Amino acid sequence: MTLFQKIICRSFHSRLLRSISVAPMVDITAPPFLELLHIISGQDRFEYYTEMHHCQAVLHHHRHLHRFVGTPRPNVVVQLGGSDPVAMAQAARLLQDNGYHHVNINNGCPSPNVQHGQFGAVLMKEPGRVAAMIREMIDREGVTIPVTIKCRIGVDDRDDEAFLHGYVQTLLNVYAMPHLIVHARKCILKGLSPKQNRTVPPLNYERVYSLRQVFPDLPISINGGITTIDEIRSVLTKVDGCMIGRKIMNQPLFLQTIEQEIHGQQKVKPIENIIGDYLDYADRLYSNGNDDNSYGLPPATLMVKPLMSLFTGKQGRDFRRNVQKTLKPDTTPQAFFDIVTNAFNTVQEIK
What is d(CA 128, CA 115) in angstroms, rounded to the nearest whole number? Predict the structure, then answer.
C-alpha cells in the first residue's frame, strides 16, 4: 500500500465508519443483489443501501421483513419513502425493532409514481415535512438508530445554493443529522424520465463541496457519476463519503478493485467461490421453504439476476445466453443450481 493509500484509508474512519457505499437502486439493490455484494467483499468495509421501500409496504410486510427487506446487518441501510410523518415513523420503529441498524429517507427520487405520492424529490420543496418525519421518529416512536437523508442539489428551478442551504438548515434545526448523501445533480420533475434525470442535468460536484464548507460538522457523501478509482480518491479528499450506483450494478466485482486499490487488500475471492457461495445462499433460502404463505420465495429468474453482471465481454454474453435459454420462472431449485453451474463451467472452458 502506498503512503497516499494509507492516508486515504485513515481518513475513511475519521467521520464515517464506512466511507464508500452502494446506492439504493430500484429493482436492483433487492435482497439477492445485496447478498451477492456481501459475498464478493466478505468484509464490513462498504455500506449497502436497499432499494427504496414505501413506509406502508414496510408496515404491511411486518411479519416477514427479513424476506421483504433483506437480512439485517450493521452495514445495510434501509431506504424509506413516504410523505406521512406518522407512517414513516412507525415504519422506522418497526425496522429498528426487527434488528435493522439504519434508515435513510429518500428525498431524491423523481419518478412519476413517487411524485404522485408526494415523496422522493418532491420533499425537497417541503423540508418542514421532512423535519416533521424526523421529529415523529425520534420524539413519538423512540427511534434511536441513525436516520439519514439522501437528496439532490436542487429541484426544478429551485437549484441555487441558497435553496440547498435552507433545506439542510431546516433539517438540522430539529435533528443533528449524522450523515447527508447528496446526488450532485438537480432533478427536473416534469419533462424528464427517471433515467434522464440520472444523466441530463449536469453534475455539479462543487455545489456539494461548498455545502461541506457551509456545514462543516455535517458528514456528507457525494453521489452521481463516480466510476473510477481516481474519482473515488478525488472526492474523498473533499467530502466524507462516496456513493456509487450504476458502476456496481453493471460491474459488481468493482468492489474488489476498490478493496485492492483503496484498501490495499492483496487477495480477493475468486469468482468460482463467489458463485459457489451465492448458490449456497440460494440453497439455504429455498431449503427453508415458504415459511409464510403471504410472501413467497423469489423465482429463479430473480435469484439469477445478480449473477448476470459478474462476467464481462464474450464471457458475459455466453454466460447470460446459457442461463437465459433454459431458466424459467418456475425452474426448480435443483435445476437452478445445475443451470448456473453449467453456464459457469462453459465460460470457464473458453476463457
Answer: 17
